[in-house]
Amino acid sequence: LPLFERLEKRIVDGERNGLDDDLEAAMQEKKPLQIVNENLLAGMKVVGDLFGSGQMQLPFVLQSAETMKAAVAYLEPHMEKDDSGGKGKLLLATVKGDVHDIGKNLVDIIVSNNGYDVVNIGIKQPVNAILEAADENKVDVIGMSGLLVKSTVIMKDNLQEMNTRGIAEKYPVMLGGAALTRSFVENDLDEVYQGDVRYAKDAFEGLNLMDRLMS
Ligand code: B1M
């Protein structure tokens, strides 16, 4: 297979042997972020489709996810960056009950490489932990990620909890993850939350949103 097709297939197959060499060769032709967007994410999409249609079992999905993470970790040091920080602070968490973190971690990379500070507290985070970390780190924006349909319900509960605690005005919220839709966030959740809640389709929209919220 040609190099870029092979990279995509590596993600689908969860094949890490020789991955670094292929990534090294790929970087001779494309920027690291382009490789993530055009080839690695394409592989994850295939994985999602195969899993969704019952043609791929969970342990193999996990291997693909680990390969994806290894590839992103390999490319990350080669990305163009302004990691001076100081433009604003974003808290990132995957919500309670949800382990999916590849998308959240991409948001972390893109946003922190563009002059923001990111406090990434990981997966399965209950609302208390999210709000405590937000306060402790004095963040400007709270970002929640979730890929399961039930995570969208948790996000709604979290926003209601923030209303109850009277901190909605203080914290704009950014939401992302494959289970959400723009209209669910911008119509339904916008009605729930007394502060500012926005949807980011991908990591770049997340960055744009930070730029808008912090300007
Ligand atoms: Co899971 N999983 N999974 N899974 N998994 C999905 C989400 C699913 C859609 C697959 C399917 O059925 N087609 C399905 C959910 C169905 C539903 O809820 N309706 C599903 C399921 C069912 C499950 C389990 C329940 C399976 C089981 O145990 N029977 C289980 C859940 C465990 C749990 O959370 N409690 C499970 C487990 C796993 C693995 C552990 C094997 C693995 C995750 C590994 C990991 O993340 N460390 C996994 C994976 C890899 C997937 C799929 C195949 C790929 C997800 C991914 O990483 N995509 C996924 C299929 C799919 O999404 N269609 C699936 C690539 C990633 C870059 O995209 O995260 O969407 P994404 O991020 C995007 C944007 O959404 C956005 O930016 C990114 C791109 O730039 N974004 C943000 C994301 N977060 C953001 C936050 C922001 C802004 C933008 O601001 C805060």
From TrEMBL:
Domain spans labelled B12-binding: 87-215
Residues annotated as binding methylcob(III)alamin: G97, D98, V99, H100, D101, S145, A203
Domain of life (superkingdom): Bacteria
Domain B12-binding N-terminal: 1-87
Family, per entry: Belongs to the vitamin-B12 dependent methionine synthase family.
Function noted in UniProt: Catalyzes the transfer of a methyl group from methyl-cobalamin to homocysteine, yielding enzyme-bound cob(I)alamin and methionine. Subsequently, remethylates the cofactor using methyltetrahydrofolate.
Domain observations: Modular enzyme with four functionally distinct domains. The isolated Hcy-binding domain catalyzes methyl transfer from free methylcobalamin to homocysteine. The Hcy-binding domain in association with the pterin-binding domain catalyzes the methylation of cob(I)alamin by methyltetrahydrofolate and the methylation of homocysteine. The B12-binding domain binds the cofactor. The AdoMet activation domain binds S-adenosyl-L-methionine. Under aerobic conditions cob(I)alamin can be converted to inactive cob(II)alamin.
Identification of the protein by name: Methionine synthase
Complete-protein stretch covered: 648 to 862 of 1197
